[in-house]
Amino acid sequence: MQLSEQELIRREKLEKLRALGINPYPAALYPLNATSASIKSNYEEGKQVIVAGRLMSRRIQGKASFAELQDSSGRIQVYFNRDEICTGEDKTFYNEVYKKLLDIGDIIGIEGYLFTTQVGEKTIMVKKFTMLSKSLRPLPLPKKDAEGNVYDEFNDPELRYRQRYVDLVVNPKVKETFIKRTKITNSIREFYNSKGYLEVETPILQPIPGGATARPFLTHHNALNMPLYLRIANELYLKRLIVGGFDGVYEFSKDFRNEGMDRTHNPEFTVMELYVAYKDYNWMMDTTEKLLEKIAMDANGTTLVTVGKHEIEFKAPYARIPILEAIKIHTGFDVAGMPEDELRETAKKLGIEVDDTMGIGKLIDEIFGEKCEHHYVQPTFITDYPKEMSPLTKEHRNNPALTERFELMVNGKELANAYSELNDPIDQRERFEEQLKLSEKGDDEAMFIDQDFLRALEYGMPPTSGIGIGIDRLVMLMTNNASIQEVLFFPQMRPEKQPLQLSDSEKVIFEILKTEKKMELDILKTKADLSNKAWDKGIKGITKHQLAKIYKDGDVLFVEILS
């Protein structure tokens, strides 16, 4: 492992601490009785406190020093005075340990009392400090110049997402996003629990990837010697619970879809699904409006939320527009009842890529997604989807070609999907069989037939309404974040590129080339001064790693470094 100069110095300090009899990673409980936030909100001059956190800055002035300590609730100023800490003749603990062996980023415990400085800053006078964890890597802290300009910020997305632990330490706003995420999920739980609905858990590993149209992840269970799928939805299991006699169940579900990644999609994401017996999609629209009003108030203290350049109003009521009407409004084409071939040609006229595997449902979905969806910034229920798009949805009571389904659009994206649930087992079987035909045509997102779910419906499921709400997208809206990666602690990323490890002979050759850029092969060999065996291995390694290339110019072989 290649260590930087700073990392080497910190490791030396670690050994010096141990030599002084100080354990840099003690095991004993540290008896906290306050936090930076509780001190500031309930400040009492002279009060004795015990706090702990990271040392984030300090200004040493001889025998005194002001510093900042950061804990889970914020930062507070602390004052180190040599004679307060070292009351006897031996000043080692201040002069050596504090001044020389402590670093920014170290986690320390502090015992002391509160006082207010001459400029009015609430501060802890340190009477005793304890090393709790030595930081072996320097934090990438932003710096300010004399004019107040900030530079060297830790703001590269690749590094921030990969090293979220550092991001949370040095960028306080990031932590606020995740605190607000918990407020949002707690708000949902409070709303549903107050109605008597039961929070449940259903399987993540499933024999059939049911409940949605998506490409699943496939794995294998060794003990059972059978394939299993990571769930793409938990819908069919929650409906089984409605069959079993629960009137209302909900689940915060980790779902997995083996599809593309972008600013609004991650292969692992969180959905909240709710199913309530004896309700329909009209009731669900009313309920969803009330839920989102509550979430906005709990998270932000207002129903008017800033999202990018838009002000989005979550106060009810929301507009309700049938999907076929939306397509007609935004494209000029009336696709209601249009045959599949004509619909495919219409999509082509609109500049939408299509193929022969796409049925009526997929074609309408593509047209709406490409030409309509982005228009709906304010919360809007898009309703009454064609039957081909909704294989789990009850037929519309007034039009057998449609279903009782809505999607909630906010800021040009789908936030929720809901139905009056299909509870006719014969109709459901026919819908599944239509999906099977699409699969045979090559649609790898078509639904599987779940025979056990059909068996459950045959025992009888009461009229039911269900909804799925994308929690990650909801948090994006409520925290004004444009990327899903900003609201996931640890978003999925490509493998980290490992630094290239060169052999000794490769290093010798490469260092010469870094200076010369290009030289004759024979001159490079002479200058490297390696044995024939070491030279052969070294030059082969350099070209294999694509650090340099060998080429012929006339009768002379040259080696040139590759940038």
Task: Jot down its keywords.
alpha+beta, five-stranded mixed β-barrel, lysine-tRNA ligase activity, 563 residues, OB fold (Dihydrolipoamide Acetyltransferase, E2P), 3 domains, eight-stranded mixed sheet, ligase, magnesium ion binding, 25% strand, Aa-tRNA-synt_II, tRNA binding, BirA Bifunctional Protein, domain 2, globular, 35% helix, Arc Repressor Mutant, subunit A
Q: Could you walk me through the main structural features you see in this protein, from its secondary elements to its overall organization?
A:
This protein is α+β, with helices and mostly antiparallel strands and 563 residues long. It has three domains: 5-139, Beta Barrel (OB fold (Dihydrolipoamide Acetyltransferase, E2P)), CATH 2.40.50.140; 174-318 and 378-486, 2-Layer Sandwich (BirA Bifunctional Protein, domain 2); 504-561, Arc Repressor Mutant, subunit A. Helix content is 35%, strand content 25%. The protein contains 18 helices and 23 strands. The protein has an eight-stranded mixed beta sheet, with helices on both faces. A five-stranded mixed β-barrel has the order 1-2-3-5-4. Helix 11 (340-349) packs parallel to helix 12 (360-371) and helix 13 (425-441) runs antiparallel to helix 14 (451-458). The longest helix is centred in the first third of the chain and has 23 residues, at 172-194. The two termini are 24 Å apart.
